Structures are given as structure tokens and as C-alpha cells.
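Below is how a single chain appears once it has passed through the pipeline. First comes the sequence as given, then the structure the pipeline wrote out for it. We keep one example in the README because the format questions we get most often are answered faster by looking than by reading.
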Amino acid sequence: MTKADIIEGVYEKVGFSKKESAEIVELVFDTLKETLERGDKIKISGFGNFQVRQKKARVGRNPQTGKEIEISARRVLTFRPSQVLKSALNGEAPPEDHAEIDAREEAALDAAEARGEDFDEGMDEGED
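Resulting structure:
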């Protein structure tokens, strides 16, 4: 799906003009981008959470040569789908009260983050 497809969907479902639909979609994406650039989380109930995380510099290996290389510190974007989205993807019935489930999941993630746990450690082994 492309941005043009999203604009077309808004145009067909909401009934705004294509120009208005494009402006709305652009505004939403700009708002999301600005929020993430500031390092703030984005929580969309029933969909998931976007969060910018800081990765430390580390030593990696070039898979072709085996030579060690320094992978610089960087910010990465992570997405954690909500239980509602996970259920939909797996063809399961949605949870009864998805807002309550999302709130519990978010509380668990916040508690893990406060303890210094990183759910994404080791997820990008061999990356770069």
C-alpha cells in the first residue's frame, strides 16, 4: 500500500475531495514524523505503539569478509502491534475491550522500560 492508496481510501470513504484527502493524510504523516523526531512515543489504541529507541555503538562483522567493523550509535524506530491488531492478523476474534488491553500492555511496556529492559536487544544481529 502506498500513500496514494491511503489518500484514495480517505477520498472514497469520507467523501472529501482528493485534494482535501491528500492534505489530511499529509498532515497526519507530518504530525507522526514530528512526534517521532522529538523522541516521543505514538500510541494508537487498537493498532500499536511506535517508539524511537537509542542503540549503542557496537562491533559487528562484515558477512562477506568476516572483518570486524564498528556500527555507530543510532536511533531506531520500533513498532509493537496491539493485541487487537495481532488478533486481526491471525483471524481471531478481537478482545472484548481492546482499550483496556492496550492500556495493560502499555503499562507492562512502561514498567519494563523503567527497569531498563529493552525488548529489541539482539533483534538486529547481523544488520548493517
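The mean pLDDT is 85.

See the next section for the split statistics.
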